[in-house]
Amino acid sequence: QVQLVESGGGLVQAGGSLRLSCAASGRTFTSYVIHWLRQAPGKERDFVAAISSTTGITYYEESIKDRFTISKDDAKNTVYLQMDTLKPEDTAVYYCAAGPYLKEYKSWGQGTQVTVSS
After folding, report:
1. What is the C-alpha separation between 50 and 36, in angstroms, rounded?
2. What is the pLDDT of residues 74-95, one digit of tens each?
3. C-alpha distance from residue 61 to each of 27, 79, 93 (Å)
4. Backbone dihedral region of 65: left (phi > 0), alpha (psi from -120 to 50 degrees) or beta?
5. For residues 4 and 72, is the Cβ–Cβ distance under 8 A?
6. How far apart are CA 33 and CA 100, in angstroms?
């Protein structure tokens, strides 16, 4: 089982940037897909982006693909989500999740709050 810890959330003004980190420990994610999802108040948890630990292929939700970038550092067992040109509607708790396939989630982090002020 992979243990995941997110960090990097915070309060930022609209138009600003944040970089979220997802640090993995335990079983390495050499054959996993690492995802970022987010959940705004009163809404469902939605897929944001993912990256394959083996191929490095990335996947994005359509509405954010021009502003967010997912990447990984295998040496640090860490996946990042660079978020640029943030909007108030990006306000949510952001979760990191790992699974064997795209959009299959077996391990979750605790989440990190991102708040974008207008």
Report:
1. 6
2. 999 999 999 999 999 999 999 9
3. 27, 17, 16
4. alpha
5. no
6. 6
- What is residue 1's predicted lDDT score, i.e. its pLDDT? 77
Characterize the bridge pairing of strands 112-117 and 10-13. Answer: parallel
pLDDT tens-digit map of 36-76: 999 999 999 999 999 998 999 999 999 999 999 999 999 99
Task: Assign 3-class secondary structure to the chain.
Answer: CEEEEEECCEEEECCCCEEEEEEEEECCCCCCEEEEEEECCCCCEEEEEEEECCCCCEEECHHHCCCEEEEEEHHHCEEEEEECCCCHHHCEEEEEEEECCCCCCCEECCCEEEEEEC
